[in-house]
Specification:
Layout: H1 10-35, H2 44-71
Length: about 70
Amino acid sequence: MITKKIPYTKKEKKLQLLKIRLSFYEGKLFRHISDYQGDITESISSKVTKQEVIMLNVAIDDLRQEIDELES
């Protein structure tokens, strides 16, 4: 069976790219959270990880908002 490629619109391409990026950042966030073991005596490296987690959360929220806007 030969399948014909369906041309995507710019909106569909952008939406697909955003969903791929969202998946990437969610995976990265999951790895950081599972590795993070902050406690009362946090080291410098754990503070960096905490900042990375915050930045990843912001990026994920922004991507989700942009995806929602495109889907509506």
